[in-house]
């Protein structure tokens, strides 16, 4: 069995992806890693191999690759959009340093690499509705700059050196297991937590601002699906648009009210994150992903809301 290294594995995506991959391939074949241990992820850390790993340290990654006989890296270590704007240079160093280190090792030692891009790879001059797979990419955040550069460098290592690189452009991901790490779409997670805890939420994103979103089980399925897809069908490899829903805060309010009729939504708009959201698409065209590797999300907004609320009631121990 091929061993897989997941970097940034204690974050919002990694904490669920590691579980899924360990279930599929066996605990010992999936090596989790992160910059530091986190108490809330102790189960994941103890369930299988775990390494402390800074993706900016290429030698340390290589040592882990050799120690465990790794054949595939899923590189999730990154700073997200809002945190990235507070420290753009660090965002560049981590996001680009990590991906380049993984690619160099992949080139020299015959590994494959999966690295997610994001809707942040688009910018204010990109067509906003049904944003095509191939279009203008001039983002105005450092996070977005690293995502476009990440797509291009993965394409380069594939075409120049034959490295099997793959990736998707994730929309905002909504989940209840691990909190998001400091992005613009985080409002769409907070709203569910606050609905359960307080019955109300003040959104930092404006009422009519649309962004694409997806429930975490669909995002995890997409990674697994694309990693195992027939390479001869892949036209884009590193940057497939994928989405499950195009929604704004009022849509989520309406959906929550179907299950919690007294829920109240207010607004306390954060100009920085609102400007980032305004620079991103309203909705993506993900038909190439559907055609090339049969991407097909299962959760729409109401189905996701029902599952989020049910699981958060259990997690937050609210009767
Ligand atoms: P996250 O912020 O929840 O987790 C990132 C993890 O990386 C954290 O556990 C952090 O400790 C770790 N990390 C930070 N610096 C590191 C370093 N130098 N070395 C090793 N680890 C380090 O992020 P996430 O939401 O899980 O995102 C994972 C990937 O998916 C990122 O590339 C992100 O851009 C992409 N993505 C996420 C979303 C989303 O909504 N969650 C959407 C689009 C794309
Ligand atoms: C963010 O908001 O920064 C992320 C993303 C869409 O990349 N959730």
What does this structure look like?
The protein is of the alpha/beta class and 319 residues long. The protein folds into 2 domains: 3-171 and 214-241, NAD(P)-binding Rossmann-like Domain (Rossmann fold, 3-Layer(aba) Sandwich), CATH 3.40.50; 173-213 and 245-281 and 298-315, UDP-galactose 4-epimerase, domain 1 (Alpha-Beta Complex). The chain has helices at 14-25, 42-47, 58-68, 81-86, 88-109, 142-161, 187-197, 216-227, 249-259, 271-279, 287-293, 301-315, and strands at residues 3-7, 30-34, 50-52, 70-75, 112-114, 117-118, 165-166, 168-170, 172-174, 200-203, 211-215, 240-241, 245-247, 264-267. Strand 1, helix 1 and strand 2 form a beta-alpha-beta unit. Helix 5 runs parallel beside helix 6 and helix 7 crosses helix 12 (301-315). The longest helix has 22 residues, at 88-109. It starts with a strand and ends with a helix. Bound molecules: nicotinamide-adenine-dinucleotide and 2-amino-3-ketobutyric acid. 2-amino-3-ketobutyric acid is lined by residues 80-81, 118-120, 143, 172, 183-185.
Q: Number of helical segments?
A: 12
Fraction of helical residues:
40-55%
Helix/strand order:
EHEHEHEHHEEHEEEHEEHEEHEHHH
Largest sheet: 6 strands, parallel
Q: Low-confidence spans: pLDDT under 50, at least 5 residues?
A: none
